[in-house]
Design goal:
Blueprint: E1 14-18, H1 23-34, E2 42-47, H2 65-76, E3 79-85, H3 88-93, E4 103-107, E5 110-114, H4 139-154, E6 162-166, H5 175-178, E7 183-185, E8 194-198, H6 206-216, H7 222-225, H8 241-250, H9 252-265, H10 276-282, H11 294-301
Parallel strand pairs: 1-2, 1-6, 2-3, 6-8
Antiparallel strand pairs: 3-4, 4-5, 7-8
Helix pairs in contact: 1-6, 8-9, 8-10
The structure holds iron/sulfur cluster (SF4).
Iron/sulfur cluster binds near residues 60, 137 and 139.
């Protein structure tokens, strides 16, 4: 891939921010607004890792994430769309001699299905590998990257248009990401449709990201308030021993569910074959906030409802998860 020159913003028909609710994609949103891109031009697209409302199996994601992203869209008056693979992470994990699930997207309150017709029947019954290789770490492509692409390639509104796709990767996050280009042709680009990919915060450091929150007194995703440095999946396969210990403390039922699936599959999430219970026993709870707001943040993170009114803090406070290193998943 080669670096491309972006068009002036007004020449794009759609500017889509791939919005996880995490700090880097939020910084992209703040930055684009600072640059004067009107909210009416922007769209937030979020891939729901655990599936949609009808086929949701709560397993990996933070319960509050979708509601948080929706509240952000409402706050700024930006259209928010959700996409997912049928049955989410759980269905992909339990796939047995079958095709991967259909992809769905929700648009203006209506749900559309993109059936899976091609590909090979396959059996997973094993956790994705903790590897940068996306063929082994199947969760990122099957639940996020391909879901996004399938919707962009098939949604009638985006045919024969000029589209800018904005994502929040940063070079300081990993040696892999250090090699990413700031701009390039998106993999959904075609002869009939121009799709540019832009990573506007590629060279930002973490301080610059939090500065964007501070100047708006904007409440970060509750995961950061609880001591997570990244808002990826709550049960991300890359979670450190401390994060597993913290999950076991604040959400014992969710932790027990993952432990039970490890036993059922006879396969551990950790590629060194340490069970989740053993790994959590190696971790500690120092990352969790020590003050009396812990239960408030836990309730917020584990709730399915979050309103825009909660987004602006009375006084900015750096969250417990800020500057804790790159703990947690890469996506
Ligand atoms: S956040 Fe972790 S578990 Fe979730 S899709 Fe990404 S790598 Fe997989």
């Amino acid at each position: 891939m080669k670096k491309v020159e972006l068009l002036p913003f007004q020449e794009y028909d759609h500017i889509i921010i791939s919005e996880s609710g995490g700090k880097d994609s939020m910084a992209c949103l703040f930055y684009l607004l600072d640059l004067g891109v009107p909210p009416s031009k922007l769209e937030l697209w979020h891939q729901s890792v655990d599936g949609g409302k009808e086929d949701h199996v709560e397993l990996m994601d933070w319960p509050v994430t979708e509601s948080y992203v929706e509240a952000v869209g409402n706050h700024f008056g930006i259209k928010t769309s959700f996409q997912w693979r049928s049955g989410g992470f759980f269905n992909e994990l339990m796939r047995k001699d079958s095709l991967t699930g259909d992809v769905y997207y929700c648009d203006d309150g209506e749900i559309f299905r993109l059936p899976t017709k091609g590909g090979k029947k396959n059996t997973r019954l094993m956790w994705p590998a903790m590897s940068p290789d996306l063929r082994k770490r199947y969760c990122s492509p099957y639940l996020k990257i391909d879901v996004f692409r399938r919707v962009l390639n098939n949604h009638p509104r985006y045919k024969e248009k000029k589209i800018l796709v904005v994502t929040g990767e940063r070079r300081e996050e990993s040696s892999n990401r250090a090699k990413y280009l700031e701009t390039e042709l998106h993999t959904c680009n075609s002869k009939k449709r121009l799709v540019h990919a832009w990573r506007p915060v590629i060279d930002w450091n973490e301080q610059q990201i939090w500065d964007q929150y501070e100047k708006r007194r904007f409440l970060p995703h509750p995961a950061y308030l609880l001591g997570w440095n990244r808002t990826s999946c709550f049960g991300c396969i890359f979670s450190t021993a401390d994060l597993w210990a913290m999950m076991r403390e604040i959400a014992p039922e969710r932790f027990a569910k993952l432990v039970s699936i490890e036993k059922q599959l006879n396969h551990t999430i950790d590629t060194k074959r340490i069970s989740l219970e053993e790994k959590a026993n190696l971790g500690g709870l120092d990352g969790l906030p020590k003050d009396n707001r812990l239960s408030k943040w836990v309730n917020m993170a584990l709730s399915h409802t979050f309103t825009s009114e909660d987004l602006i803090m009375n006084k900015w406070e750096s969250p417990a998860g800020a500057f804790r290193g790159n703990v947690g998943g890469p996506c």
